[in-house]
Each structure stands twice: as structure tokens, then as C-alpha cells.
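Q: I'm writing up a methods section and want to include an example of the input and output format. Could you take the sequence below and give the corresponding predicted C-alpha cells, formatted cleanly so I can copy it straight into the document?
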Amino acid sequence: MQTWSAPQVPSLPVRGPQVSVHDTSSGGLVATTPDDVARLYVCGITPYDATHMGHAATYVAFDLLNRAWRAAGHDVHYVQNVTDVDDPLLERATKVGVAWEELALRETELFREDMEALRVLPPRNYIGAVESIQLVIDLVEKLRATGSVYTVDTDLYFSVTADPAFGQVSGWDRDQMLEVFAERGGDPDREGKKDPLDCVLWRGEREGEPAWDSPFGPGRPGWHIECAAIALQHLGTGFDVQGGGSDLVFPHHEMSAGEVQVAERGEAFAKAYAHAGMVAYDGEKMSKSKGNLVFVSALRRSDVDPMAIRLTLLRQHYRSDWEWTDDLLWASVDTLASWRETLASGAGAPTRSVVDDVLAALADDLDAPRALAALDAWFAATAAGDTTEPSAAQTIRTLLDASLGLAL
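A: Here is the clean output for your methods example:
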């Protein structure tokens, strides 16, 4: 699958520190320890609607990680999927009377346009579920060889208890898992399952639904095995960070990890699991089911500067739950206008300390609000008349672009 165009990222004058992130599985800050290449997997969209601010916040967050690793001297192997066949997509296509393939292609292209506008660095591998059918089949076959797979009617299920580490990604107990499993794509009450928490690996063919041939009958992949197979193929086991929104902690990341760890005989799926907070609007979590969405594309069509959208997202720490408001956006529009005016003179306050402070903040669990506070102080000092460094504006432009993805 085609990804989007990569923005030009300028080189920073200094190397950034090594990066630490909050690891959901351990509950604390952990240092990332990449080899020469840092490996990152971030779960992608199910393309049945446009990119909203909850999506954008997640992908901008992990773009910060990508940039912080690059600042620390690492190449980055970034992989992202597209769940271009799944129940929500099929249901939406039926409701609006559009072929599911057409809907998936249209919304994936809109997502690409939004990411490009927000200057999100593209993944090296951008992989759809449909093009990964054989990868899924191969992984299911490996799981069958371990005895962790069983059949209910024409569907194949994974026994989650086959993974001794099941539950360690989320840290949840069984009652917590059961409480949300059905809300997040699970089927705990299905008759014939060995455990209510067991998840679908392969969904047997249903009338009117797409299906692909396999050794276990025609059908299509379950949700979790899709990401498990793509990550395993392109990153291997023990990659540096599995990322996504906090609503993916369970079941999605727990299940994906368990499937790979059983298939690979105990090899860890990922070293760390980092999760972005949820974005609310009108007092509730932004979601398609509630219809309280603010779309990136709609704002772009209204001539809102994409850098103002990105700055609004960066003002919140990526792990925080927060609420989008128009006031936050218009404050960002005003801030960018002020910053551009200040940078127009070329000279400014000394930059060495602000460069160090910004890179240190981003290396410390992607603390963009702290980084922006350091920049706000530099802009205030320069606007107040400190122009002791003749080429300061160029250094700050480079810093904003390379570390925060803000092109001024």
C-alpha cells in the first residue's frame, strides 16, 4: 500500500539525548534501547470515515517519538497498518450503499492527505489487512501447531491462556477485561468458546461478506492477528515500541502480543507499549459512534493552517485525556502569527539553551508542552528586544521543524 510523501526534515545542530517513554506494561518510564535502527509499530485506521482529532493526536504523538529517535542518531523503521476489511467498514459501506473496497480506498487516501498536511513522517511500511492475508494465514498455521487454536462453527479462536504472559501488557485483572471486551470488538458470550476472553483469528465466510481461501476454509482475518502478523513480518520480535491510543491497550495490544508470543515460543512481542490519551469534544470522548467528531480535513477545507492544528495537539501531553475546543485552535492560530512575526527579523535571543531544553523535554516521554514552554520563553525574550544572536531565527525554525514538525 502506498504511503504519503515525506516532508523534508532539517538537520539539528546537536544530537539529542536517548529517549524514554512511559511503558503501559510496567507502569513507569523506561529508556528505549534501540540498536542502530529503532523499530516502531503504530496501529492504523479502519478507513470508514475521515481522520478526526483523536486519530491525529495519536499519530502526531508517535511522530514525536520518530523525530526524537532521529535526533538521538537512530534510523527508524516505522510500520503502520490499515484495517481495510473489518466489521465497521463493511457495516458503513452497506449503510451508505458504497462498495467496501471503494470506501476503504477513499478514506485511506483522505488519511494520507491529512497526515501529509500535518507533516507526520510516513511509515517505511504502510500495510493493508487485505494485502496481508497470507501473512495472517501463516501465523495462524504456526499457532495451530502449538495447540492454541480451536474451532467454533467455521471460526478459529485463539486460547489466550496459552500465553503465560497474558495480562502483562495491560496489567488488568480478569474482571476489568470482561467489562470492556464486548465493547471493543470481543464476543465473550458466544457459545462454544473455551474462555470468554478468547479472540477470533479467522472468521469463516458469511453470506455477502468478502472472503479469501485458506487451509482452514474461506474467510477473513480477525482484528488482532492482522497487526500481529504485519508487525512480526516487518519488525520481528522484541521491537522497541508498540504504540496506539489508550483504547487499544485491551484487548487489541494484549491479544496481538499474546498471539505472537505463543507462535514464537515465548519471544517478547515488543519491549515497550506506549499509549496516547483520548480526545473529547462536547464533554465526551471523540468517537464515530457518538458523532462528536472534529475532522482534520474539514478544518483544512475551512482554510485553517494545518500547523495550527498540529500546535494545538502538541500543547497537550500525549498521554493526557483532554478536550478539543475552538478556543484552543484559535489560540494556536494567533501564536503562529506572533511567532512568524518575531522570526521575520532574523536575529533573536541566544538559542543554545532552548535547543538543549526542547530536545531534553521530548526525550523525556515526548513532553511537547515542556518543549513548547521553552520556545515560548525564547519568543518572549526576543520580542522584548533581545537580538544578541544574529542567526537565531534560522536555528529556531530548524528546531521547530526537526523536533516538533512545525514548519514556519
